[in-house]
User: Fold this.
Amino acid sequence: MIKAIRGMRDLLPPETARWQWVEQVAREVFVLYGYREIRLPLLERTELFARSIGADTDIVGKEMYSFTDRKGESLTLRPEATASVLRAVLENGLDKGGGVKKLYTLGPMFRYERPQKGRYRQFYQINCEAYGVEAPELDAEVILLLLNILKRLQLGEMRLLINSLGCPECQVKFKAALGLFLISREGLCEDCQRRRTTNPLRVLDCKSVHCKEILKDAPVIRDYLCADCAAHFARVLELLSRFGVAYEEQPRLVRGLDYYTRTAFEVVAPGLGAQDAVAGGGRYNGLSQELGGPVLPAVGFAIGEDRLLEVLPRDPLCQDREFKVFLAALGGAARDRAFALLQELRQHDIAAEMDLEGRSLKAQMSVADRLRADCVIIIGEKELTDNKAQVRDMTDAHQQSISFAGIVDHLVMVKERRANVEEILNQTPAPR
Ligand SMILES: [Zn+2]
Ligand SMILES: [Zn+2]
Assistant:
């Protein structure tokens, strides 16, 4: 038997209903904030990621699925979406015309990491990207949008960690100070010994416990922010406070990508161990120019869907509660009649299924139970003669005979009544 590749998994029903629910909620919130969807290829030129994410990052150095195509060109399965979205924005001129440009995209990303709980080699993200404005209001709005999605999904405990990585000017000064601090330290891992001269910021992102210990006394970027960056960060924090967002300043937060400037943030949720971020993002004002484009300030985030689904409550809202009908037919003629009725019900937006194998009534009723059918229509020889079917309501086992001509109308009515009851049950009384 051929099996799936290590670290890549199948998402199966009924779990897929939860995924659909998460994505539906995200789409609804994006629309409220004026975002529109963009869909992109999964493959890009390797150079796009090497130049944007940074050659010295773990992602580019160790984790990309890259290969040479038949023409000898190096291509890579996208390890993240920001670079691809920006590539598409620049290529298609979506940045033109002034104002904020807001885009979102959903889909799989690929990284060759060690698989563990909530971490897969093909994983899914919900991405949000906003372009064209440097204002701190946009940083705050993007964070509020993210938290709005997570709140609607009923993510219980979460913490927002935030930092400012400054502009290139601040970063030059900070990297020099950090480099100086690191140069005299013993015991850094092999990667960090190299990075302390090539790209000391990346040392802050090292997962080694040893390196983390050494960094406890390292300088923090907050002390190296220029006046403009400090004011920008202060305004973002002020706005978050004003809208009731509890944040925690995390002076060593850098994220695993080189392109961030100024605001960087993560949302962490308990229950995922060391890999506890369910979302992360920040501002990346320099990335457009890095890719050969114009000055284009930008800010965005990515939600890790696999991890998010690990920590979300198993909420009844996302359970598959579509009104369903099962047709149990006994004998060839009854099956033929039922098959026609099946098509008719679906024409009237009623989900319906039937047995196609000529099983006993008992076996068919147990299938109806398994499908959690709301009603079962029973058709046998007698029903055909009487031109009526038995309709059983599975919630109270009440059974009645209804003429074939009246069945569809009857079920449409039952379905509507059921929906009204559910709506009333789901309404929480307004606080007095
Ligand atoms: Zn600055
Ligand atoms: Zn290290």
The mean pLDDT is 93. Residues 188-189, 191-192, 206, 208, 211 surround zinc ion (ligand 2) (CB under 6 Å). Residues 125 and 304 are 5 Å apart (CA to CA).
